[in-house]
Specification:
The chain has 367 residues and is α/β, with parallel strands linked by helices. The chain is built from 14 helices and ten strands.
Length: 367
């Protein structure tokens, strides 16, 4: 028990101070192609470390996303060997879930060859888009015996509900509807990939390309997608579109100080776009697989998340089999890719203790 507490303390210290991890640039070989990866270990260790694979989300920063790098280094500092493979498709903002399994397999091969890491089962972590994909991958016949536990940060469960929230700001849990001001980044990425497969939008390739430009700009400038400084680019992109597509563009990318279009039109788009995603790429919908997961799973979500509402992680947990070890932690201490702080000291202490216990269980899930 004391060992587990100390691991978590080292994680927390590194998260706060950015210390005690050593990074090595390496490669994985996925389907005959060499891809870059980062391997991290604690600054001081005797080998025989538990191994972890970390999958990031869909962002042009890839494995160098600041929060992803910070988390991976903190996990390594806790006393683990951590590999973060680059997924070039996701870095190019292409939603390609089919590359998850071969990426994990390739990362496993590297961990098996590292003298610092003990042989055996490893942990698999997915962040954002990578969260449901990590859970799906753990059920693959070639990986099931190698995954000790899955950790999901900020993932979604129901594609249609998630899109509805991104387009209208509405999300629901147990009959109670809540409202947020949604981060537009998610709807930009989804539409850039699948808008032209929605009935009636087959010729809207220019709109899809414009939304991709916006998503790329947000990550390259390191500005939140809701920031008003994107309005200049929105105006330029909109002016280049045929007038018949202006309303569609405005549905996905209104000016920062404008209200969402909302209403039945957005509700219908959420249904149609989710259907296009499922039809084209079934693995984008994790629900059919979650009921078959066989490994322990730890789920984390920020209560103030504006990209994917926290109710999706509650729904994710509910969809899992009753006989597996599963826990969900909703916290006010972080949102999708940024820290948060409750206003009162008492709330910060309370939330900190809850998160510490959840992180302790996660960190000690592998060896």
């Amino acid at each position: 028990m004391l060992r587990g507490v100390m691991r978590t303390v080292r994680y927390a210290r590194s998260w706060e101070n950015g210390t005690a991890a050593v990074l090595h640039e390496t490669t994985i070989e996925r389907d005959g192609t060499r891809l870059p990866a980062t391997f991290a270990v604690p600054a001081s260790h005797r080998g025989d470390l538990p191994g972890w694979i970390v999958l990031g989300g869909v962002t042009s920063m890839g494995r160098f996303h600041p929060q992803l790098a910070r988390f991976s280094q903190a996990l390594a500092a806790s006393g683990a060997g951590v590999i973060v493979p680059e997924v070039p498709e996701w870095r190019d903002l292409r939603l390609r879930p089919e590359v998850t399994v071969p990426t994990v397999q390739a990362a496993l091969c590297v961990l098996d060859q590292r003298p610092e890491v003990r042989r055996g089962k490893v942990g698999l972590i997915g962040v954002s888009f990578g969260a449901p994909q990590a859970a799906i991958a753990s059920n693959h016949e070639d990986l099931a015996e190698r995954i000790a536990a899955v950790v999901a940060f900020g993932g979604y469960c129901d594609l249609e509900r998630t899109l509805r929230c991104q387009l209208t700001g509405l999300h629901e849990w147990e009959g109670v509807t809540r409202r947020i001001d949604p981060d537009p980044y998610g709807r930009w990425v989804l539409a850039s990939n699948y808008l032209t497969e929605v009935p009636g939008c087959e010729e809207a390739a220019d709109v899809a390309a414009s939304l991709r430009r916006l998503a790329l700009s947000a990550t390259q400038l390191r500005l939140p997608a809701w920031d008003s400084r994107h309005d200049v680019l929105k105006g330029e992109l909109r002016s280049c579109l045929d007038a018949r597509w202006h309303a569609l563009f405005d549905m996905f990318a209104p000016a920062a100080d404008s209200l969402l279009v909302g209403g039945e039109e957005c509700e219908a788009m959420a249904v149609d776009l989710a259907g296009a995603c499922r039809s084209s790429t079934p693995l984008l919908d994790p629900k059919p697989v979650l009921g078959h997961i066989q490994v322990p799973i730890h789920i984390f979500h920020g209560r103030s998340d504006r990209l994917v509402p926290y109710t999706e992680s509650l729904r994710f947990k509910k969809a899992l089999p009753d006989d597996i070890a599963a826990a969900v932690t909703v916290t006010r201490l972080f949102a999708h890719s940024a820290d948060q702080q409750p206003s009162s000291v008492a709330a910060r202490i309370r939330e900190g203790l809850i998160l510490f216990r959840a992180l302790k269980a996660m960190i000690n899930a592998v060896g």
